[in-house]
């Protein structure tokens, strides 16, 4: 017959056995808030709000694809493009844009923020369009 002996209990072991340690934060109006783990209330909020982040990410990707379509490197750069197999959506040569993206003239055409266009031509709309533009795939 085997006899197992438990190690002697310390004061900390005895104190923790009397009360259950839980990391919880009270939520106003929630009677079960005492039973929620510490990060539970945040995860519920994340599930509720992630659709908005997903929409913004999708819009950024679409804006980049449209910018690359307008760029049309294969036609505008005498076929000196990076990733030529992408056709119209191929990137400018790495010497021109090492971020794997469109040309500077495409940024100007698509609403990039340029001092002359903003101040002299009063194209204020560029302030709203420039945050949606990305210099390349790495920037995106």
From TrEMBL:
<feature type="transmembrane region" description="Helical">
    <location>
        <begin position="50"/>
        <end position="70"/>
    </location>
</feature>
<dbReference type="InterPro" id="IPR002610">
    <property type="entry name" value="Peptidase_S54_rhomboid-like"/>
</dbReference>
<comment type="similarity">
    <text>Belongs to the peptidase S54 family.</text>
</comment>
<protein>
    <recommendedName>
        <fullName>RHOMBOID-like protein</fullName>
    </recommendedName>
</protein>
<keyword id="KW-1133">Transmembrane helix</keyword>
<dbReference type="InterPro" id="IPR035952">
    <property type="entry name" value="Rhomboid-like_sf"/>
</dbReference>
<dbReference type="GO" id="GO:0006508">
    <property type="term" value="P:proteolysis"/>
</dbReference>
<feature type="region of interest" description="Disordered">
    <location>
        <begin position="1"/>
        <end position="28"/>
    </location>
</feature>
<keyword id="KW-0472">Membrane</keyword>
<dbReference type="GO" id="GO:0016020">
    <property type="term" value="C:membrane"/>
</dbReference>
<keyword id="KW-0812">Transmembrane</keyword>
